[in-house]
Write a structure and sequence with these properties.
The chain contains 2 helices and 17 strands. It has 2 domains: 88 residues, no CATH class; 97 residues, Deoxyuridine 5'-Triphosphate Nucleotidohydrolase, Chain A (Distorted Sandwich), CATH 2.70.40.10. With 206 residues, the protein is mostly beta strands. The strands form 4 sheets. Strands 8, 9, 11, 12, 13, 14, 15 and 17 form an 8-stranded antiparallel beta sheet that branches. Strands 1, 2, 3 and 4 form a 4-stranded antiparallel beta sheet that branches. A 3-stranded antiparallel beta sheet has the order 5-6-7, with no helix packed on it.
């Protein structure tokens, strides 16, 4: 499934009567304005007036007003969402992706396993889950998401890792700022792809 919010060209949001949105944590989040966004879901475009806020963990959150606008029907038993004029969509498809290359190699997304806080000027190693199952002890490459720096002010490391029995991998993250940064559960951190069985490594001498 392919999902995005239209072209990357930036537009200024227009004023809206809504000034504040209350988060689940009861925190008041200022609203920057409203913007008409062409959400592209499975080759269908769904224009909608989106509320713009700062520091949103996800690229977008489609709420009840969007679902009502496009006559959405949820099938929780099959984990499917049906939108007007569109095909069925997996409910977790907005967060995860799974790509199979022409050689049959699986490439999947990496998501934060739990909420964690990165202290200021610190580097930490955290467990992450994979959006697709792999055999235990599979060795592969982690490629951090490019938007981590722009969106969360953190830096991810490209590394070679081994999948655990819980289908998790370690991912290294750096907070170069002087403020603690919270990363929430299921935040997409990057992608994983299996490495060749005879991968070669070397030790770098400074």
């Amino acid at each position: 499934m392919e999902t995005n919010s239209g072209p990357s060209k930036k537009h200024s949001p227009s004023p809206t009567a809504i000034n504040i949105i209350k988060a689940v944590s009861e925190t008041n989040i200022p609203v920057l304005g409203q913007l008409e966004v062409p959400f592209e879901i499975d080759a269908h475009t769904y224009p909608f007036g989106a509320i713009v806020i700062e520091c949103l963990t996800y690229e977008a959150i489609l709420g009840r007003d969007f679902l009502e606008c496009y006559d959405a029907k949820k099938d929780l038993g099959q984990q499917l969402l049906h939108l007007e004029h569109g095909s069925a969509i997996m409910l977790d498809g907005f967060r995860n992706f799974l790509e199979v290359t022409t050689e049959g190699t699986k490439i999947c997304s990496i998501n934060a396993q739990a909420i964690f806080v990165i202290p200021p000027l610190s580097e930490i190693l955290v467990p992450a889950t994979l959006s697709a199952p792999f055999d235990t002890n599979t060795v592969g490459c982690v490629e951090p998401r490019h938007e981590l720096t722009e969106r969360y002010n953190i830096i991810g490391a490209a590394e070679i890792v081994t999948i655990s029995e819980q289908n998790t991998i370690p991912i290294r993250l750096l907070n170069p700022t002087d403020q603690p940064i919270t990363i929430y559960r299921c935040t997409r951190l990057g992608q994983f792809s299996p490495a060749e069985a005879d991968i070669a490594t070397f030790e770098w001498q400074p």
